[in-house]
Amino acid sequence: MDTRTTILSKVREVEAEVSEGARRATGETSASANVAPGPEVVEVAKRRRFSPAYKRRIVRAAAACTAPGEVGALLRREGLYTSHLSQWRRELEAQELSGLSAKRRGPKPDAAKAQARRVEALERDVARLHHKLERAEQIIAAQKKLCDLLGLPTAEEPRR
Questions:
Q1: Which one of 14, 26, 74, 149 is most buried, by most CB atoms within 10 A?
Q2: Against a cut of 0.90, is the pTM above it?
């Protein structure tokens, strides 16, 4: 009895696969077609990365192309787009120009730290100037009192 049920279940599975294949060909769907997908993992698309040596080689090969259509054939053969080629040309030119310029040694300046140092220096200057102004005002007040005691005319009073 046990073998008979296994045989019947196998026959039903084969019939279901055959009918499912026929439905797929005709475009019909059924409840059995809505079964969860199998354990197959779908590959996730990844951005391609090209090494600097590869980029340089392709730019040089494109520069060596003389006949019409050779660059297009090169790009098709390599699976690239014209935007790749133009971007790589710009990168290569910028790299060559930066290679000719003198490079500063040591750590690179940090813009945020430089701005913080500038703000701090300006705040110190403001504090110093406030202190200087207070002293000047005290000196002027003392001079006015001295003029009043001695009876001398001040700059605010007209001379007699």
A1: 74
A2: no
